[in-house]
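From the shared-data thread, chain only:
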Amino acid sequence: MPSPWRALFDIPRDVAYLSAASYSPLPRVTVEAGRAAMSNKAQPWLLPAGFIEQQNETVRAGAAKLINADQSDVALVSSIGYGVATMAKVLPVPRGSRVLVLGDDHSSPVLEWHARAGEQGFAVETVAMPADHDWTRAVLSAIERAGAPPLAVASISSVHWSDGALLDMMPVAAAMKQAGAALVVDATQGVGVTPVDVKALDPDALIFPTYKWLLGPYGRAFLYVAKRRQNGVPLEQTAHGRRDVRAENSHYLKDLAFVPDARRYDMGERDHFVSMPMTAASLDLINSIGPATIAAHTRALTMRLAEAVKDLPVSLTPERHRSPHILSLGFPKGTPPELGAALAKHGVHGAVRLGRLRFAPHIYNDATDIDRAAAVLRTIMADIGG
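Structure, as tokens:
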């Protein structure tokens, strides 16, 4: 059965794009929003008063809705790395303490802590990738490890980017609170496809970008900050982060106190004429469909693919530990180096990550794409002896 959402995208029928975990294609409505936004920037004198503030708050509200957050708890940032750097500046990490990260996690939630560890005198502890893919148990064991230095922060992804292994964040969050430590979540591979409720989870921070599962442009991301962490000094010092620094005032630097919510952490040059309206269009689409519906759709597709390749010499992340929207295939001798290019020649697009072949369908994919990918993979493996 064709996807009811495929017509919203400019994707030829002979293309099976299964790499949303890398970059998503833009919906037609988002592309049109970008074209209109370019016209706005071409003639900015036609913009109505309050346009910039309105577009910023529209986008902020759309992001907050996706994670069940208060609008005032969401900052507009450029990337996961920006959000992690902000929280590394805000969160106390005492000398002699430790910061937990995941083994082979993406660079974004990891490198900032390595950069600070020497000067600040704390240790970065890497949780090794478990052979059974049970990241939840591995992280809980690291949090509770007897004799370990005090735990200050865990900076971890909720879905591992390389193989789609899913962490159960609720027990992790509870264990972090028990340890008196802060939790920073990179939700890049989760928000928009899996339901996320920050009021239930209560992390100190949760960060997610638009260019993958939110079907948006590059260079936009969101930083949720718990109210208890909204009294820090931002990464950048901006006029919009202060109570009353306005060009319209007779005295420009009138009130230098920070605004009292997460808006103080908004990035500099946040007022993008082009990418903000595009982001708003994509968020509207994702919110209108709903993460639960998207998760059910993608789970059916990854399950279909898992069934189709079960007789091939590949290993899969166990179903109980994998996310609904990512299926990663391991090969006994590692992924053949020519496999990704060979698939692309036949119109099938996945991604090779850490020696595994990752497929990541979204709403524009359907059973035809999955069957095509399985058939092409089978043929190529037979040809190369994989």
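The first strand starts at residue 16 and ends at 17.
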